[in-house]
Design goal:
The protein is α/β, with parallel strands linked by helices. It folds into two domains: about 280 residues, 4-Layer Sandwich (Purple Acid Phosphatase, chain A, domain 2), CATH 3.60.21.10; about 130 residues, Flavocytochrome C3, Chain A (Flavocytochrome C3, Chain A, domain 2, Orthogonal Bundle), CATH 1.10.1130.10. The protein is built from 15 helices and twelve strands. Strands 4-3-2-1-11-12 form a six-stranded mixed beta sheet. Strands 5-6-7-8-10-9 form a six-stranded mixed beta sheet, with helices on both faces. About 35% of the residues are buried.
Length: about 425
């Protein structure tokens, strides 16, 4: 509450001498990068924020409270790191289409699967310098007597065509003159202008025509939203990433059409926010597709497997390391795969990798029918493949014999899945072996 009051007072101070328009408040809900995350990782309380189901619930509630709100995104919805990302991206687009955004900026990661990939779900994409007939250069939204003009700028320096070699057509324009003209025309028509970009603030101020921009949305920060900044007539917003939060901006416009005052709030979406019931058929279909894809991949892996697995399994380790095995058996690691089954994630590759031994590696976990002995977080997740160690009665070291314990933990306990991880606090829970 104190933070909101300070932002409101700052807006008043910075607008000295400007009379307020009588049109009332204008509400804008904005989001930044989703980064291919359709739903949050549930492995930790701290990281269990956001997801499209909760986002839909939150926005539905906000629309009931503010029927004339504007809903926009600076883009960055997709990822293209793993094979699973394309399928997840397809359903992110389908899900957000049901949330009904007024406008979404285009970032390069959104074009990872080609321009046509993002154009099938009726989303209102905007890129003011991208050359594609299916993407608007600007979008005007009129609601409750207010007009919002949404623009988006792709950084030409990040164009993948440049990295692919000379001679390929560059897909974006570097010329900001057309953008400047469009911004000026929009402002002259009475619109509030909003420009979204993946550029950081310093580069945006150097490269973009900001004289006729009322709101600049810059490069997303990691997870957390940045504090709004008022620079002259320009209000700068920085959304967070991974779809964990929403920004709630309420503003007043002066008689000159510029922002006279504003309030800003960041809305968290923890697990206490219920899933949107109207999106449950979409989510059920997504999980069915994930399972179908997983089973196809599992069949391919079974067909390709040959020879002995390099992994031994926890039972083999127990024959010589009984005390250590007892500690493991009583730890959450032993039942890690069961947790996936409890939340219907036993077919999601993004989850299975850290809850089984050797997933997607030769001789590693495939599925419970084929390789049940490798389910759970076992000795070899940390210490490495151990079959040769077992066969040699311990004379040959395990694969990760020279790793430090912190390095072993860091394979799965990363910021994305385990933000509160601290080795000194976590290690005593499973302390074993020579490192006791």
């Amino acid at each position: 509450m104190k933070q909101q009051l300070i932002a409101w007072l700052m807006g008043l101070v910075l607008s000295t001498g400007v009379a307020w328009a009588g049109a009332g408040e204008m509400t804008i809900i904005y989001s930044g990068n989703t980064d291919g995350e359709l739903e949050p990782c549930g492995c930790s309380e701290e990281g269990n924020l956001g997801g499209i189901l909760r986002r839909a619930t939150t926005i539905d509630k906000l629309r009931r409270q503010h029927p004339d709100l504007f809903l926009v995104s600076s883009g960055g919805l997709l990822a293209s790191i793993s094979p699973q990302d394309r399928l997840t991206g397809e359903y992110i687009l389908k899900g957000l289409a049901q949330v009904n955004y007024d406008a979404l900026g285009v970032q390069w990661q959104d074009l990872a699967y080609g321009d046509e990939f993002i154009l099938h779900d009726g989303l209102h994409w905007v890129s003011s310098n991208h050359r594609h007939a299916g993407v608007a250069k600007e979008r005007l939204i009129r609601r409750g007597g207010q007009l919002l003009a949404f623009f988006s700028w792709l950084d030409p320096e990040k164009d993948p065509a440049i990295a692919m070699g000379e001679g390929r057509p560059v897909s974006v324009s570097r010329d900001t003159a057309e953008l400047a003209q469009s911004l000026k025309a929009a402002q002259a028509s009475g619109a509030l202008t909003l420009l979204a970009t993946s550029l950081p603030l310093a580069q945006a101020r150097e490269q973009l025509p900001l004289e006729q921009v009322d709101i600049l949305v810059v490069e997303s920060a990691y997870e957390e939203y940045g504090e709004p900044q008022k620079i002259g007539n320009l209000l700068v917003l920085q959304p967070g990433s991974r779809g964990m939060r929403l920004g709630h901006l309420t503003l007043e416009r002066g008689t000159d059409g510029r922002i006279a005052a504003f309030r800003h709030e960041v809305i968290k979406m923890p697990k206490s926010v219920e899933d949107a019931e109207r999106l449950l058929p979409w989510y059920k279909e997504y999980n069915a597709k994930v399972k179908e894809t997983y089973l196809v991949r599992a069949a391919q892996r079974r067909a390709a497997e040959s020879g002995d697995s390099p992994y031994a399994g926890e039972e083999a380790c127990a024959t010589c390391h009984a005390d250590e095995h007892d500690i493991w058996w009583d730890s959450p690691h032993a039942g890690a795969y069961d947790k996936l089954e409890d939340v219907n994630k036993a077919y999601d590759p993004n989850c299975v990798g850290c809850h089984t031994v050797g997933y997607d590696q030769p001789g590693g976990f495939i599925d419970m029918d084929t390789t049940p002995q490798f389910a759970g977080v076992q000795c070899e997740n940390c210490h490495g493949a151990a079959r040769e160690h077992v066969k040699s009665a311990g004379s040959r070291p395990v694969a990760n014999a020279h790793w430090e314990p912190q390095q072993m933990c860091a394979q799965c306990h990363v910021q994305k899945h385990s933000p509160a991880f601290n080795f000194d606090r976590y290690w005593p829970r499973i302390r074993h072996g020579l490192a006791k």
